[in-house]
Fold:
Amino acid sequence: MNPVTENGARFGEQGGLLTYGTYLRLADLLNVQRPESDPPAHDELLFITIHQVYELWFKLLLFELTDARDRMLEGDAYLPRVRLERCREVERVLVAQVDVIDSMTPQDFLRFRTKLAPASGFQSVQFREIEFLSGLKDPGFLKRFRGLTQEEVARLKRRLEEPSLWDGFLAVLRYAGFTVDTPEQRMEAYKQIAHDRTSYGSLWDLAEALVDHDQAWALWRSRHVLMAERQIGTKPGTGGSAGGAYLRSRLDMRFYPELWHLRSIL
Structure:
């Protein structure tokens, strides 16, 4: 027999407390894709949907990465790796989603692109939160951002001030007995961990999970650059950025350069 809820309704029957639509708030969710172009541009719905989905994934990434950071600060090396592995799978989806927007031709994009100004992906607060939380902190973004609410500015300032994933990783190393106060001490710790995975396998796996996150974010940046150049060439971005030139300038950014340098000295 089906389990019975408190009001007597059985799961799967009408009259239950929740339905698929009410649990997911689909009426609200499906009402926020609102194109601005007049006359309507067919591909604007695609553009809006893709970017709203990105923001939903960013929300999940921030949830998982924050938990990973907090647990590392307490010395946990296991669950942070699990969280980071989930993030890697989400980031693979982010890269794959670019293929969907690449189905839009430059001509179709130009039909509504002028409606976007001054809005821009440059203004994605959650994207910057992920970068700040991951360790790539740049206070200058707060001066360059336009159109942010006070709450959004407060969120970014909080991410700048709070520990990053990198701080969490160093905390785990300290819990394991390593001294990591200087770059030289950290490099010695990394080498010891790398050469003795029998003793330090969990630390090595955690470091690799961080590199996976770093690499996935770099792959997304690279794929995004190609998409932008395919759509707008060398035109400036709608938010006043340099467009493709700005995006390309960030391709060499790394969250954890010391872990990448380690490869050169093993």
